[in-house]
Amino acid sequence: MKRVLLIGSGGAGKSTLARKMSKQLNITAFHLDKLLWKPNWQMTPKPEQAIIVNNLVRQDSWIIDGNYNGTLDIRVAAADTIVFLDRSRFVCIYQVFKRLLQYRGTSRPDMQDDCPEKIDWDFLKWIWQFPNKQKVIIMNMFETIDQSKNIVILKR
To answer: Is the whole-model pTM more than 0.90?
Structure first.
């Protein structure tokens, strides 16, 4: 386990797990939220996202957390282990509100500076619809990827 991809709904615990795995395995964790968001919640253009992710996956070892479908294929192809945090939408929404209170007015450690923690309806809607939309895409992807990859699905 040298190239680990962590995916799942917002609030599922990807960044927390990435930090813990990083310490345990002594592998650098990269948070896509920190790398792809620019100050004041400006998203990096998609072509630049692909460059950033391609540079990351060329490294010998890494833990990358984040969804970002535009570069998911790059990360899946390079990963030896894929961890899907399949958490309840209720747990994810609770975690997002807990995070909002914890980091109110500041940027969390796994987020770009000058992106103070916030919640909007689009994000909550995305979390709520994740099991019916994104999870289906992820589960279908698991059926088609190289069998040599370790796939771990965590419900808790």
So the answer is: yes
Round to whole Å and give the CA distance between 55 and 92. Answer: 30
pLDDT digits (tens, 9 = 90+) for 1-32: 999 999 999 999 999 999 999 999 999 999 99
DSSP 45: P
Phi-psi region of 68 (alpha: psi -120 to 50; beta: other; left: phi over 0): left
Tell me the backbone φ, ψ of residue 132, rounded to 5 degrees.
-90, -15
Residue linked to tokens 């345990």: 24
Task: With beta carbons less than 8 A apart as the criterion, state whether 69 and 7 touch.
Answer: no
Burial of 118 (0-12, 13-18, 19+ CB in 10 A): exposed
**HEC readout, 121-139:** HHHHHHHHHCCCCHHHHHH
